[in-house]
Amino acid sequence: MSERMKGKVVVVTGAAQGIGFGCAKLLAAEGAKVVLGDRQRGKGEEAAEKIRQEGGEAIFRGADVTSEKECELLMEAAVTTHGRLDGLVNNAGWFPRATLEETTTELWDQVLQVNLRGAFYCCKHAVPRMQREKGGSIVNMGSICGLQSLPNLVAYGAAKGGLLTLTRTLAGAFAKDKIRVNYLVPGWVFTEGELALHRAEGRDAEEMRKQGERLPLGRPQTPLDAAYAAVYLLSDESAQVTGTILNVDAGAATLPLPQGFYPG
Length: 264
What we know:
This protein is of the alpha/beta class. The protein has a single domain (9-183, 233-244), classed as 3-Layer(aba) Sandwich (Rossmann fold). It is built from eight helices and seven strands. The protein has a seven-stranded parallel sheet, sandwiched between helices. It is globular, with a radius of gyration of 17 Å.
């Protein structure tokens, strides 16, 4: 690894597994001091320990992004432990499948609370700490659901669309402070959570793999595919990149999604 993140302190939410863990692991390998946040405390501690065993610098702090106080404490943990905050990956998310008819008011509120309000809380408390350092970078983990019509993910799509607007708004508002904010769009990522959802719907890993092969680039993605892009956006290599959408989706956004691509 190039250690292009050496000296930087980065918070990653939803970091106990999947894309979040992939980002935290790669950031640490590139020299960052990583603070992993997740509400799954047992898995989160294990994730941080795995990174340390591989020579990376990582700590875990339990945090539920639906709580503003816990988001504030997560950002403060980075400053208390390492003296600064340079980067944030807003990765924590929840994507229950439901059409308009199936979406209750309670479900709508819960999905937006996790996927949109949680990112807002983290940004709100990360930005002042980045301002003290005269700069920083925020990566909001988006979704093709925020860019395309997927009728069985109504609330999730609305949340990710809102996150895109939040990204552009903050990018413009804090460019003067050298704080960059970008929207990263992964595609069909083979994670534990995605696999569990498929199993609950009666599908197995092989079926998921075959669906991933329907992507234009021909394979389901791994958390590392998204992590490489996140590291780029957090590093000085992207010093002139802000308010943008970075698609790392194997080409899914370039074509209409096939009928039934997202089952449910």
